[in-house]
Amino acid sequence: MNSNEIYNLLKSFFPDAVIDYKDDKPVEPYIIVSAKEIDKICLFLRDEENLQFDYLSCLSSVDFDNDNLAAVYNLYSFVHNHKLNIKVIVPKSDPVIKTVSSVWNTANWHEREAYDLMGIIFDEHPDFRRILLPDDWEGYPLRKDYKVQEFYNGMKVPY
Amino acid sequence: MAELKTETITLNMGPQHPSTHGVLRLELVLDGEIVLEVKPVIGYLHRCFEKHAEAMTYPQVVPYVDRMDYLASMNNELGYAVAVERLCGVKVPEKVEYIRVIMAELNRIASHLVALGTYGLDAGAFTPFLYCFIDREKILEIFEITCGARLLYNYIWVGGLSHDITPNFKEKVLEFVKVFRPRIKELNDLLSFNKIFIERTANVGVLPPEVAINAGTSGPTLRGSGVNFDLRKNDPYSIYDRFDFKVIVGNGEMGTVGDSWDRYMVRVWEMEESCKIIEQAIEQMPAEGNVQEAVPKRIKPPVGEIYARTETPRGELGFYIISDGTNYPIRVKARGPAFCNLSALPLMSKGCMIADLVVILGSIDIVLGEIDR
Amino acid sequence: MRYLNRLDSKIKQYEHGNFVVTSVDKFLNWARLSSMWQMTFGLACCAIEMMATSASHYDFDRFGIIPRPSPRHADMIIISGTVTLKMATRIKKLYDQMPEPKYIISMGSCSNCGGPYWEHGYHVLKGIDRIIPVDVYVPGCPPRPEALLEGVLKLQDKIRNQSTYKKNKA
Hints:
The complex is a heterotrimer.
Chain A: H1 3-13, E1 18-22, E2 30-33, H2 38-47, E3 55-63, E4 68-76, E5 83-91, E6 96-98, H3 107-118, E7 121-123, E8 151-152, E9 155-156
Parallel strand pairs in A: 2-5, 6-7
Antiparallel strand pairs in A: 1-2, 3-4, 4-5, 8-9
Chain B: E1 9-13, E2 25-31, E3 34-41, H1 49-55, H2 58-66, H3 73-88, H4 94-123, H5 127-147, E4 156-157, E5 160-161, H6 169-192, H7 195-201, H8 209-214, H9 220-224, H10 231-234, H11 260-284, E6 304-312, E7 315-323, E8 329-335, H12 337-343, H13 345-348, H14 354-363, H15 368-372
Antiparallel strand pairs in B: 1-2, 2-3, 4-5, 6-7, 7-8
Chain C: H1 2-7, E1 12-13, E2 20-21, H2 24-34, E3 37-39, H3 45-54, E4 66-68, E5 76-80, H4 85-97, E6 103-107, H5 109-113, E7 136-138, H6 145-160, H7 165-169
Parallel strand pairs in C: 3-4, 5-6, 6-7
Antiparallel strand pairs in C: 1-2
Helix pairs in contact in C: 2-6, 3-6
């Protein structure tokens, strides 16, 4: 199935949660969905007979624009050999997305990384803490307005 | 008699531990000798790749890509080059594609040799390590003649290569393949079919295929579980669709499908397949061609984003790149294969003995540079 | 005897007797530099070159350098790779656990000064010498095995000329 067909199928099952479909070249087509229902949509994508997206290739966090952050899900199906990209856009003031780590185990660490570096909060995540940086680190480095702290544990950070 | 309740112990393993292949730390919850829970703690080598990539132009990112998975730099460069070329729509010359494939496959062999050698060390066999490094040095010699570096090459550029091959390159590579083929058999005699080694690794750390897929593993870790999936075949990039090679999958020859021995053995036979690809590529490679012909003077991709994935020795390396039309990328996210493979370690090692944990960790062949980036 | 002589010309030997005369310092230095046990500790890319140096082609063992897994056994530590802020405190702890005398080789640009991660590496320590003292710096990214061997020889030179006994007397 191509992305457009999947979009129409999703739209019929989740009319409120599926927001938009974009396929302007050269960008690969993607579907924008709501942050509140991403877990249900992903479960549907994984378990529906003609979709079966059993593999989460990548989950990236993006500093989308001045006011918004985004999470991008790249899905793949071993069974049907098709791909799908999903985007979730959340405001910087309240960056909360439902976790999909119960759907794909691999999302567990990816979501922790997205929180660590971009500050997106994943609701109902089983083990939610920083993954790469130390627990007492300040700020989220990959945001465009990030200012690095002067000292960490008595060691000077920026030069 | 009532069930005797025993205390659990929490044990720290790493970041300085000889068998963690770098600076990985594991928090273990033990019931005597039995591992109840494993919590990998990573980030001790977090070198801020993604922040660097945002501050660099597209060609300047390549050296940092090298330093991610430092055992397979060529494969990483190829992955990044493929991603940016797809984004810009650059078509690279035939000769460049062939040299890239040869380099990537040579590096796959070199990387697997380190993986297999150090795996022997983990299981308590020192000699295979020395044997593997002899052959690895031969590959590094070829790289050094071609581009001057032993480990981090900056060889595969976006749109081309930094240097053309030397006149005797083909003979050198063919000679290496000829010498190397019997060495695989030697390694098998020395380690793979050694009774002690099989006892140590077979039926240890079993990862069933459906769990492996759900946990996002890829590469030999996924194929060891019997899943026939290789991006070189299933989602071909570069010119991999022109070569005839087999995808090696684990078959549970010594125990269960998806145990540590299977993952180890997938790597051994993959070296053989890489040799096949190299021979075919040498044969088909066009003699003429300028390797820098298609290198753009200035790389300015159109506004857009791309997720491109390639098969490195550890599995699926994905680059998610967003461009805003300038010569600096907005975001470069690297999806490291070892990152996802390591996240499956708790699933593999639940209920194993603590001594087996070292063997399981060695069998997924992690490189911390790529996990932490 | 001749073997000893070849190793260090400063040891005086007698023709008919099973003894040598030398100063305490020279004897200690000779013993120390001839068997420097190194801590098995790899950090990043340079660790692979360190492994290659200790493997068959370059053979670290001929300088008496044997990898030891525990800091308590080690005389020398090679900081082979990028030191991050999260790792820095652990390295300090490892260094403190090593018995005196102890020597540090800083291998590669990253541990010398931050290397390629100097400018934007918000999580990289800009040089290991900011937390522990370094004896020999080996430049390169990564240094070739020959360069590391040169660093080891330089460290041996340094040990050969140090004075433990005189210092204590003063």
